[in-house]
Amino acid sequence: MTISTRVTELLGIRHPILLAPMDLVSDGKLAAEVSRAGAFGIIGGGYGNEAWLAREMDAAGDARVGVGFITWSMARNPRVLELALERKPAAIFLSFGDVRPHADRIKRAGARLICQIQTLEQAKDVAGNGADIIVAQGAEGGGHGISRGTFPLVPAVVDIAKGIPVVAAGGVADGRGLAAALMLGADGVLMGTRFYASTEAAGAAEAKQRIVAATGDGTIRSILFDIARGNVWPAPYTGRLLENKFTDKWRGREAELLQNQDGEAARYSAARTAKDFDIAGVIAGETVDLVSEILPAAEIVKRTVKEATQLVGGASNRYRATAD
Fold first, then answer.
1. Alpha carbons 308 and 321: distance in angstroms, whole number
2. What are the φ/ψ torsions at residue 86 (nearest 5 degrees)?
3. What is the set of domains in the chain, with CATH numbers?
4. Per-residue pLDDT tens listing for the chain (324 residues)
5. In this structure, what are the phi and psi dihedrals at residue 44, rounded to the nearest 5 degrees?
């Protein structure tokens, strides 16, 4: 089963599903498995760790993958973009920053430019600066974002994208989400949380089990974890993670946490090393409700496409519309 869209044509893939470039979780192995399953794997270049990125791009082997960056982090280490482009990725994924300084370089290297946005103003900006694909990210998703919901954001971005294909992100973890995104006018979906709970994902086994056990009610958007790790993002960005004892302790006490940042940062760092997720954060979105088991990435792709195909193909049989 396949679902062909402009995104599958642009990226040369069979299925309109993209792996979210989750920092340190979407490594070369996971990205390669997603791509070999007919979707599009994107390595999470994140904050620009050059040694990690080189290793993971090599680990992806001959799989056709992309690389994602937190855009403003490249100012700290411009070499990471060059390193990625030297290895001829199929696409570069940029989010959270100005794409203009990088767009021409990426496109001249022969890579597609995928830009993730969280507002209509950002969508207009990347549309005017060379984006080949726009990812509209809603606040339901795990990790950093703003406040708009996926369901109203996606069609609004489609309307102003000037023919540029749009991918829905945030709140998609199965075929129902893919089918819904297509009905909203999107040409595909980006999934993170569902692939985090995959066999190949680089996340800790304990973190994956917490995703399986969690509910969407048990996620929180805040800056608490950013404070604890000394990496507070500019407003209005916050991050969605699973609630734990750390959030229970500090929620509503952000100013006090900032005053105690040094001591808490040391404890938080130790917890991450020890995989103590009562303190360390597990980045995950509201779709944890839909994740009931850890599966191979290829099986996730297969099930998502099968379910979406059945829903899209059978839609006319499920509903009856009559003219008044």
1. 21
2. -60, -30
3. 6-202+293-312 (3.20.20.70), 205-274 (no CATH)
4. 789 999 999 999 999 999 999 998 999 999 999 999 999 999 999 887 889 999 999 999 999 999 999 998 887 888 999 999 999 999 999 999 999 999 999 999 999 999 999 999 999 999 999 999 999 999 999 999 999 999 999 999 999 998 999 999 999 999 999 999 999 999 999 999 999 999 999 999 999 999 999 999 999 999 999 999 888 889 899 999 999 999 999 999 999 999 988 888 899 999 999 999 999 999 999 999 999 999 999 999 999 999 999 998 876 555 565 566
5. -85, 90
